[in-house]
């Protein structure tokens, strides 16, 4: 019946609005406690450095011609910068390159453009100057934790992310872009309750906005981060960043999504399902 359909649409629209603003609604009455917990977490959490060693390399056998093989570029926050591991060879970009090289039996040249503490808006000025012009086969974009802790609104986050993706696609012309899901902050062991719960809500809201943007952007695939943070050894010593083992699990998930969604060399569309 038309009346029931209209009422259902209004209810759904109202629920989507509430869900979008749920983190802010949950945080409002807890602001003094959350602020105190946030200050304490920043004070007691170890400050790990960015990874040492070259931020670019080659996985798999070298080919005779320089143009042979695949090119991978990663742009993102602290995990792309290698915080939580010793060298970039143990970080997400190199491990993703190794996984793709093994899957496709091709060499993969990789480069990581990351910086600790950046938001998506910061990336425009701090990371884009580091991004080389020229076509890549695979682009990985990984943000969300700093935008969650900054309580960036879902709308502002999505707009910032859309601008960054458009700029990167124009500069790098990737065959496929993987937009990594926002890490599940509701499971971060370094965060006390209720701060963990509220940041988990915020991270989930930003992740939904990222998935919606990817679904509407040609050539972009959203890959949820399904990392069992409770598993032993997957987090670094600060219990806030992924360890080398955690990056390896994450890289496997991303590589599977890339293989499933890889477009044909000559034309064709991209299957968005993950």
Automatic annotation (TrEMBL):
Gene3D superfamilies in alphabetical order: SGNH hydrolase
Source species, domain of life: Bacteria
InterPro entries: SGNH_hydro, SGNH_hydro_sf
Limits of the SGNH hydrolase-type esterase domain: 74-247
Name of one Pfam family that matches: Lipase_GDSL_2
CDD domains attached to this UniProt entry: FeeA_FeeB_like
Protein name: Lysophospholipase L1
Organism: Noviherbaspirillum suwonense
Source taxonomy: Bacteria, Pseudomonadati, Pseudomonadota, Betaproteobacteria, Burkholderiales
């Amino acid at each position: 019946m038309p009346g029931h359909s209209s009422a259902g649409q209004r209810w759904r629209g109202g629920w989507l609005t509430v869900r979008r603003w749920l983190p802010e609604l949950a945080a409002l009455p807890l602001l003094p406690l959350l602020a105190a917990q946030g200050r304490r977490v920043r004070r007691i959490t170890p400050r790990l450095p960015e990874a040492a060693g070259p931020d670019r390399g080659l996985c798999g056998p070298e080919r005779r011609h320089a143009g042979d093989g695949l090119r991978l570029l990663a742009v993102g926050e602290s995990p792309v910068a290698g915080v939580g591991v010793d060298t970039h060879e143990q970080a997400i970009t190199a491990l993703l390159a190794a996984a793709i090289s093994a899957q496709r039996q091709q060499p993969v040249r990789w480069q990581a453009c990351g910086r600790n503490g950046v938001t998506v808006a910061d990336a425009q000025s701090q990371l884009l100057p580091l991004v080389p012009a020229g076509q890549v086969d695979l682009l990985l974009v990984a943000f969300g934790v700093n935008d969650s802790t900054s309580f960036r609104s879902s709308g502002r986050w999505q707009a910032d992310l859309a601008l960054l993706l458009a700029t990167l696609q124009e500069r790098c012309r990737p065959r496929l872009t993987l937009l990594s899901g926002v890490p599940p902050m509701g499971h971060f062991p370094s965060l006390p309750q209720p701060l963990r719960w509220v940041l988990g809500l915020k991270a989930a809201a930003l992740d939904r906005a990222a998935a919606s943007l990817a679904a509407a952007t040609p050539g972009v695939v959203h890959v949820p981060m399904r990392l069992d943070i409770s598993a032993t050894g997957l987090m670094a010593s600060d219990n806030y960043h992924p360890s080398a083992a955690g990056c390896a699990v994450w890289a496997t998930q991303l590589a599977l999504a890339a293989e499933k969604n890889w477009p044909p060399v000559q034309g064709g569309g991209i299957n968005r399902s993950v």
